[in-house]
Amino acid sequence: MANVSVYNMDGQEVGKMDVADSVFAADVKENLVHLAVVQHLAALRQGTQKAKTRGEVSGGGRKPWRQKGTGHARQGSTRAPQWTHGGVVFAPVPRSYKIKMNSKEKKAAIRSALTSKLQSGDMIVVDKIAFDGIKTKNMVKVLGNLKADKAYVVINGNDQNVVLSARNIPTMKLASSGTLSVYDIVKYKKLVLTQDAVKTIEEVFA
Question: Within the chain, which residues score under 70 in pLDDT?
Fold first, then answer.
């Protein structure tokens, strides 16, 4: 099993922790990580764009002029794309951009992302993150102590003091261990996990 250092909120090393090789030393499958990121970004697209084709715009019930003898090019309808206010060629229509990934692929992508963070030295394990009250500066101080200003912080549960202390910091994102996102693991420079979160992740993704 891989062995990682455990830090407290002051940034001091307070011990060591074994992490499961099945989760944090897995085969890195870059294709699945890429697919998970593309799926996340695709799911953010609304897919509500719409333009009218020549069959949907108004007007054009008859030829604008006769076929021959006018000196103009022949025209069949004012709804044709080359006319002002005509229809759009291959007009976009509402659609879904969702990409399917089965559960095994999603788990493999998470394991790959976690392994990459550990191998690159960008994963930090903290014994706990807990505050007596709601203060943004408390979370800023913890991130500074851990040298993880741009971080994806994963905790176990939903401690409101921690959640509300972190919500106004633009350079970090807080998540629960049950809502891990490959996109966010890849996006942020540092991955900060509490010890409880590590254990939950191992149970879910092993």
Answer: none
